[in-house]
């Protein structure tokens, strides 16, 4: 029995079933942002490992083919970036200036606050990628010496906070321009924020969608140069 | 699986492999998959959108993106002690840090788009 539970078959099947269950749960509950399929998917796999007392390393080895495909998905992100090229070129200057500042403030404010309360290098590096889309955050965290699982958690919480509180914050602080709303939702809240941005309007959604790739690339290059 | 999806997947994997090759260059700031994304993006720009097989494969992969980060994310089960130890800092960074970055981004973009 334990051979079976430690086999790649179990790891891969568990991952697929957890993902499908997460999706189903998200749909039947009316798609609340805190029930992102990935959140419940991760929770289901984590709970299974704890309940059956299985080793995470063994599970990860078994599921390594799925983890490998994360790199493939990251490459595929080139497609939405290409599809938004027209919009990026029309708003090039404001987008680039906002991106330049936003990336520094997003990574800097989070790591700065964490550093002030006393933290170790690996946790700081896992926090630095909190505003970029998960597949990119995992690659970047791996290469700068953070913990990918921690980075994944931080990215998800950030996205959920932006999706849940972004609308009210924009209203209270008087932000009405669709491009500004979209950039804030996408540059800070990545894909999770973008889902919510599309509900605010198609122009807001488009700006949010193009912000994901820009912020990911900018943060990856910046951290790669700062933390060789 | 349709033949075209396999072709598309093979093309995307070639870009992933090329990204990995670039990663071997000393001083390369980008992780392999992200270099692969940049190369794929440049390919789409140069060819005016590429061809349907790779676009279809990319759309399939992206529509199930969340599946692929479950293995890495589940590692959170090994980090409980660390989360407890640094609970205050982590909470501050995620809430206050996100609020600061969000408001800055929104207002800067609104000011620049006047």
TrEMBL record, chain A:
It is found in: Membrane. The keyword Kinase does not apply. It is a multi-pass membrane protein. InterPro entries: CidB/LrgB (IPR007300). Keywords: Membrane, Transmembrane, Transmembrane helix. GO terms for cellular component: membrane. The keyword Transmembrane applies. It comes from the Bacteria. The chain crosses the membrane at residues 6-26, 33-52, 64-82, 94-116, 150-170, 206-227. Its main location: membrane. It holds the Pfam family LrgB. PANTHER family: PLASTIDAL GLYCOLATE_GLYCERATE TRANSLOCATOR 1, CHLOROPLASTIC, PUTATIVE SEROTONIN TRANSPORTER. This is LrgB family protein. It comes from Vreelandella halophila.
UniProtKB/TrEMBL annotation, chain B:
Keywords: Cell membrane, Membrane, Transmembrane, Transmembrane helix. The chain crosses the membrane at residues 33-51, 63-84, 90-109. It is found in: Cell membrane. It holds the Pfam family LrgA. It is a multi-pass membrane protein. The keyword Ubl conjugation does not apply. GO terms for cellular component: plasma membrane. The keyword Lyase does not apply. PANTHER family: HOLIN-LIKE PROTEIN CIDA, HOLIN-LIKE PROTEIN CIDA-RELATED. This is CidA/LrgA family protein. It comes from Vreelandella halophila.
């Amino acid at each position: 029995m334990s051979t079976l539970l430690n086999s790649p078959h179990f790891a891969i099947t568990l991952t697929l079933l957890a993902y499908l269950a997460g999706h189903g749960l998200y749909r039947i509950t009316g798609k609340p942002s805190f029930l992102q399929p990935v959140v419940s998917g991760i929770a289901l796999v984590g709970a299974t490992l704890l309940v059956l007392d299985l080793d995470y390393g063994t599970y990860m080895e078994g599921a390594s083919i799925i983890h490998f495909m994360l790199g493939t998905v990251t490459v595929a992100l080139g497609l939405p970036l290409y599809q938004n090229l027209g919009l990026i070129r029309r708003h090039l200057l404001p987008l680039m200036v906002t991106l330049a500042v936003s990336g520094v403030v997003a990574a800097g404010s989070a790591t700065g606050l964490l550093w002030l309360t006393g933290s170790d290098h690996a946790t700081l590096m896992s926090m630095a990628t909190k505003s970029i889309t998960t597949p990119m955050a995992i690659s970047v965290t791996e290469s700068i010496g953070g913990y990918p699982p921690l980075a994944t958690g931080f990215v998800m919480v950030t996205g959920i906070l932006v999706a849940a509180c972004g609308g009210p914050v924009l209203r209270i602080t008087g932000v009405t321009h669709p491009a500004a709303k979209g950039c804030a939702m996408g540059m800070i809240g990545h894909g999770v924020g973008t889902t919510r941005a599309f509900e605010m309007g198609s122009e807001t959604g488009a700006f949010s969608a193009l912000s994901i790739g820009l912020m990911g690339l900018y943060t990856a290059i910046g951290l790669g140069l700062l933390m060789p | 699986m349709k033949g075209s999806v396999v072709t598309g997947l093979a093309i995307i994997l070639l870009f992933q492999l090329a990204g990995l090759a670039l990663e071997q260059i000393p001083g390369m700031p980008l992780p392999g998959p992200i270099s692969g994304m940049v190369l794929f993006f440049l390919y789409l720009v140069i060819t005016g959108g590429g061809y349907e097989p790779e676009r279809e494969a990319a759309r399939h992969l992206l529509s199930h993106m969340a599946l692929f980060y479950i293995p890495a994310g589940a590692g959170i089960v090994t980090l409980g002690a660390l989360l407890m130890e640094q609970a205050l800092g982590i909470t501050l960074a995620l809430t206050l840090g996100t609020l600061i970055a969000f408001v800055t981004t929104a207002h800067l973009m609104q000011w620049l788009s006047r």
